[in-house]
């Protein structure tokens, strides 16, 4: 039985690295006394797969995992038993049984949305914020330099942006951002904000920004669906 | 930030945590973690492992004692590890004090900070951790508001280089001793007496060594004149020992880390002690006598471990698990019961002669990676000197069986620089390696690898070789170079330990309390994580020796006399000095000594001296 489960990865669980997450689920399911299905071959591994990795330290309000079990079981019972064995911060939200031949999460997911809170370095008026965001979105290309061991590489990040909106709350700015994700990469929320500060002179304090990934989606002809939507599962 | 609260620390740390390597080292909310209420416990202890999280969490003793202390409702125990250099820098830049993982309370807030001494090269980390915690390194600079700084573990059998930093040491097995000490700390909190009076009281507990009650005087040539104990404390501090291992505390709900640690599996201690009597091996002497756990206990513990951890592998640990008399039925029963859930067994410490390759095959899950044998020396003569009861035939038979069963990588462990070693013994390593490789080729195996690893012999306290010097670094390096030349063969791979690290290890293994200022100097000059080759700064250490006028050769390369007063003369493993002298003689005569488990008592002195006995369950 193949399951797709939506869960949170918040609080202390946000520090669990993506590579370690498989083990966390694997052990929780084993503690719950539920038998997982294993891969064939030399070194059988339980069949557990995730969508796009969440950066360490970023909270995820709605992430997804696919798990293969040896036998059919009652969905509610599986969730209840596994939930009991999961560390704080990982809460199972919803799930469904996948159809035979349903595509993997990596194959269907292609968008992510974020909520970013960032303190102002200098006071910012609402109009100033709107102007900056509109001006930035109005650009056809936005070049951003990524630095790696090999040196800087320039990249146009604008094509990845599907939606960006900012509002002021006290002395913080709250951004809602939606980006496309794909096998050829994506853009990180930090990069969008850094670019916004640089190109539009928006005085925001990037050292103190807090990013939450509010969801990952299947983006489809202008709309977006959850990977739990029956058309995807 | 010297008076930070737990909440302050947590808030500060969370700001930069995603930027450091492996943040989950520093958050302490793993599965099975124990978070107790500070206000509802009488004594708060921080268990400190002076190395990174992945190393410390792999150590069984740490797991045992963490859960043991927490099993008492009146005591609380939290963990702290050495923050890796990137984390240390962030903490120092922001003046965040070292904190314990469970509560984020600063170390300074605890009543007791207990370090485990697993290897000499972690000593600088101890001092660095104290410094990072804002706790004065030196005992005389600490006040009544500071925690008691205590230490135990195998290196506590020669604790002298740490005298001046540690208030008292716990020698031997702590399952009964540590709770007794904590009870005295609780009493001290309720009705405080002077430091002196408290320490006198603690010194009455079996195996507790309070260094300030022992005065050491020296001869003009630097050797020890005498070690004098003050009135009211034992002249010889003998180790604590658990008489009934089967009934001893063992945690079956251990903490399950998020990140992958060095030994990332369940650990089941099948027995304690080893009576093989290898003459270089400190563990083989200090953990006597051999005590096995019963198969019933082990199976019950396995069941509980699987339920509580969700791990898919269980390691049967001890100094030599192939010698456990019920090893076959225990493995069989574990696999029968839990094999279907995907649980496999591993045997981390096997010896050629106890090693039944069939056994290895049963436990090996699917992939046949590598199999390790430890002949330790290249010729029979030298193996007799060290009392490693293994011969070439045993090794070749085992290697043949392994090749036939499908293994393609065989690892062979040796030591270089053993007492009486000659060129012939070095050539013996080459011979043996080639014989093993040829065997594989002869059996028609292609793509085989024989990995030869040599470590440098480090003489250890409380062993028959404690009087021996370490061979000079330049001479060992010549031997390593020779081996590198001779082991050029595409089937062979040669690894060797760094000579400089082993040299420093020998200095501290055989050192005395005059080395304490050097440790402090080294830490102030940036030494830490000395066991990590990329962090080890040999030049700084050498500069320190020069600066403080200490000759490292005096400790590492000097042969000691039987009538020399050893720096650890006042610490007792309950194996008599007379036995060690006799064993040293027998080594030089190339005479083997039998294993008392199967044959007559060899007179090491542990059983009659301590009213304990060998406990076999098979």
How would you characterize this protein structure?
- The complex is a heterodimer of chains A (233) and B (618).
- Chain A has 233 residues and is α+β, with helices and mostly antiparallel strands.
- Chain A has helices at residues 18-31, 75-84, 105-108, 126-138, 189-200, and strands at 2-9, 48-50, 59-68, 92-97, 111-119, 143-148, 151-156, 161-169, 172-180, 210-220, 223-225.
- The radius of gyration of chain A is 20 Å and the shape is elongated.
- Chain B has 618 residues and is of the alpha/beta class.
- In chain B, strands 2-1-3-4-5-6 form a 6-stranded mixed beta sheet, with helices on one face. In chain B, strands 15-16-17-18 form a 4-stranded parallel beta sheet, with helices on one face. Chain B has a 3-stranded parallel beta sheet with strand order 10-13-14.
- In chain B, helix 9 runs parallel beside helix 10 (327-338).
- The longest helix of chain B has 20 residues, at 423-442.
- The interface between A and B is medium-sized, with 31 and 26 residues.
Compose a concise summary of this entry.
Chain A has 233 residues and is an alpha+beta fold.
- Summing up helix and strand content along with how strands pair, one would put the structural category of chain A as alpha+beta
**In one word, what is the shape of chain A?**
elongated
Q: What is the helix tally of chain B?
A: 21
Strand order of the largest sheet of chain B: 2-1-3-4-5-6
Reading off the top of the CATH hierarchy, the class of the largest domain in chain B is best stated as: Alpha Beta
Terminal CA distance of chain A: 13 Å
> Mean pLDDT of chain B, rounded to whole units?
95
Radius of gyration of chain B from CA coordinates: 24 Å
């Amino acid at each position: 039985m193949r399951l797709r489960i939506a869960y949170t990865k918040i609080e202390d669980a946000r520090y669990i690295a993506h590579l370690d997450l498989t083990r966390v689920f694997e052990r929780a399911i084993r503690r719950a006394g539920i038998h997982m299905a294993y891969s064939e071959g030399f070194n059988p591994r339980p069949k557990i797969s995730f969508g796009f990795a969440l950066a360490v330290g970023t909270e995820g309000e709605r992430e997804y995992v696919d798990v293969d079990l040896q036998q059919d079981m009652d969905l509610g019972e599986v969730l209840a038993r596994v939930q009991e064995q999961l560390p704080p911060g990982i809460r199972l939200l919803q799930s469904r049984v996948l159809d035979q031949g349903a595509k993997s999460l990596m194959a269907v997911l292609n968008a992510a949305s974020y909520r970013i809170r960032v303190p102002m370095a200098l006071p910012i008026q609402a109009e100033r914020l709107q102007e900056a965001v509109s001006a930035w979105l109005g650009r056809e290309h936005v070049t951003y330099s990524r630095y790696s061991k090999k040196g800087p590489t320039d990249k146009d990040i604008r094509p990845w942006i599907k939606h960006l909106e900012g509002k002021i709350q006290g002395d913080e700015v709250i951004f809602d951002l939606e980006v496309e994700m794909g096998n050829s990469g994506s853009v990180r929320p930090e990069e969008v904000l850094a670019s916004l500060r640089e190109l539009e002179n928006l005085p925001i304090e990037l050292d103190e920004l807090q990013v939450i990934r509010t969801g990952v989606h299947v983006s489809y002809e202008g709309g977006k669906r959850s990977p739990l939507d029956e058309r995807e599962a | 930030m010297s008076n930070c609260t737990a909440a302050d620390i947590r808030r500060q740390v969370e700001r930069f945590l995603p930027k450091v390597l492996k943040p989950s080292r520093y958050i302490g909310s793993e599965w099975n973690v124990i978070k107790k209420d500070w206000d509802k416990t009488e004594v708060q202890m921080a268990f400190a492992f002076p190395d990174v999280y992945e190393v410390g969490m792999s150590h069984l003793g740490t797991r045992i004692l963490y859960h043991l202390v927490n099993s008492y409702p009146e005591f609380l125990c939290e963990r702290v590890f050495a923050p890796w250099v990137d984390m240390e820098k962030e903490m120092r830049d922001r003046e965040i004090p070292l904190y314990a993982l469970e509560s984020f309370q600063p170390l300074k807030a605890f009543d007791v900070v207990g370090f485990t001494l697993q290897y000499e090269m972690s000593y600088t980390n101890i001092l660095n951790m104290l410094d990072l915690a804002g706790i004065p390194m030196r005992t005389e600079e600490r006040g009544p508001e500071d925690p008691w700084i205590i230490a135990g573990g195998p290196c506590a059998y020669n604790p002298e280089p740490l005298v001046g930093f540690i208030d008292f040491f716990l020698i031997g097995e702590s399952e009964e001793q540590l709770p007794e000490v904590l009870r005295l700390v609780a009493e001290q909190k309720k009705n405080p007496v002077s430091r002196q009076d408290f320490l006198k009281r603690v010194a009455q507990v079996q195996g507790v060594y309070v260094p300030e009650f022992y005065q050491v005087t020296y001869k003009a040539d630097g050797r020890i004149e005498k070690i004098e104990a003050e009135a009211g404390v034992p002249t010889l501090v003998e180790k604590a020992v658990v008489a009934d291992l089967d009934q001893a505390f063992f945690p079956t709900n251990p903490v399950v880390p998020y990140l992958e640690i060095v030994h990332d599996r369940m650990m089941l201690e099948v027995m304690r002690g080893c009576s093989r009597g290898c003459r270089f091996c400190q563990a083989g002497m200090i953990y006597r006598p051999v005590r096995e756990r019963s198969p019933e206990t082990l199976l019950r513990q396995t069941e509980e471990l699987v339920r509580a951890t969700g791990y898919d592998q269980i390691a049967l640990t001890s100094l030599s698990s192939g010698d456990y008399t019920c090893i076959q039925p225990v493995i069989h029963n574990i696999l029968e019961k839990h094999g279907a859930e995907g649980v496999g067994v591993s045997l981390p410490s096997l010896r050629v002669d106890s090693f039944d390759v069939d056994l290895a095959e049963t436990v090996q899950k699917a992939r046949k990676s590598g199999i390790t044998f430890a002949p330790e020396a290249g010729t029979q003569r030298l193996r007799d000197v060290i009392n490693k009861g293994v011969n070439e035939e045993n090794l070749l038979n085992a290697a043949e069986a392994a090749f036939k069963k499908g293994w393609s990588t065989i690892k062979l462990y040796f030591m270089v620089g053993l007492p009486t070693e000659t060129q012939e013994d070095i050539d013996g390593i080459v011979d043996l390696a080639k014989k093993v490789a040829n065997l594989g080729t002869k059996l028609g195996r292609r793509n085989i690898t024989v990995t030869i690893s040599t470590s440098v012999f480090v003489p250890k306290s409380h062993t028959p070789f404690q009087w021996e010097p370490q061979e000079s670094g330049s001479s060992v390096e010549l031997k390593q170079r020779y081996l590198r030349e001779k082991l050029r063969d595409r089937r062979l791979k040669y690894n060797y330990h760094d000579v400089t690290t082993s040299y420093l290890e020998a200095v501290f293994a055989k050192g005395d309390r005059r080395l304490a200022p050097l440790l402090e100097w080294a830490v102030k000059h940036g030494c830490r994580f000395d066991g990590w080759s990329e962090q080890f700064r040999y030049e700084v250490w050498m500069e320190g020796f020069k600066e403080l006028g200490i000759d490292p050769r005096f400790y590492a390369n000097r042969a000691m006399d039987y009538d020399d007063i050893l720096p650890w003369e006042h610490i007792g493993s309950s194996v008599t000095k007379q036995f060690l002298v006799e064993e040293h003689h027998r080594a030089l005569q190339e005479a083997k000594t039998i294993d008392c488990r199967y044959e007559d008592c060899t007179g090491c002195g542990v059983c009659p001296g301590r009213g304990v006995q060998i406990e076999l369950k098979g």
